[in-house]
Amino acid sequence: MLRIENLQASIEDSPILKGLNLAMEPGEVHAIMGPNGSGKSTLSKVLAGDEGYTVTGGKVEFDGQDLFAMEPEERARSGLFMGFQYPVEIPGVSNSYFLKAALNAARRARGEEEIDPVSFLKLVRERAQWVGLDDSLLKRAVNSGFSGGEKKRNEIFHLTVLEPKLAILDETDSGLDIDALKAVAEGVNRMRSEQRSFLLITHYQRLLSYIEPDYVHVMVNGRIVRSGGKELAQELEDSGYSLFEDEEAA
Ligand code: ADP
Ligand code: MG
Ligand code: MG
Known about the structure:
Elements lengths: L1 E10 L2 E11 L4 E5 L6 H9 L5 E9 L2 E2 L5 H6 L2 E4 L6 E5 H15 L7 H14 L5 H4 L1 E2 L5 H15 L3 E5 L7 H14 L5 E6 L12 E6 L2 E6 L2 H9 L2 H8 L1
Parallel strand pairs: 3-10, 3-11, 6-9, 9-10
Antiparallel strand pairs: 1-2, 1-4, 4-5, 7-8, 11-12
The structure holds adenosine-5'-diphosphate and magnesium ion (2 copies).
């Protein structure tokens, strides 16, 4: 599903990712944990194709294709879903209009017909319920004036409607109260399948007690420095990141 080899990337000539390796198979849930400033958001933005970042080395394969040869829109149409730490607001475009356009672009890319209005309405109502998103937020402009929790629920709502092959969620848990956190986890858990993979990027262990990852990776200073099973998340919660930071420095 995803193969990252020796990835190096810079922001304004400062190297941030310094030889990152990661491989994910279909159906797997991986978590990347790491201290602030270790490059977690940089990784998600580089994979999304954000122009503010320069890839200076390495390669990434997504579903058998060279990711960096694909335009950002093409990545999305091909089934890569990105959820960001700070979801963007799109004034003037209603949430449901935006979602329908994105869904139809993905369907066309798969050689399927556009969804009919009745099925679309049924789908969005069902999925909004999964994540506890209020129906009124469907008509509002995307994320405009949404609270932090509503933005994150909306992000997962989009995920459940778009049914991507790979979802990368950056700090989806940050700033969420426990109800919103459970709603987000519910959305992700309902979408888990043998074909779909998730990469959860998080600073805290909290989300991982609701979404059980198959693998946990520790990221420090632009690299994965340790990988293990879900027990690694608990170990980090107990010991903190300093152990890994010291190892990295040594
Ligand atoms: P994380 O998500 O793990 O907290 P980030 O990927 O956001 O880390 O940041 C990694 C490093 O890149 C940090 O040292 C941060 O200060 C730096 N950085 C992020 N964005 C910029 C930017 N626009 N210009 C310069 N440095 C940046
Ligand atoms: Mg940060
Ligand atoms: Mg971040």
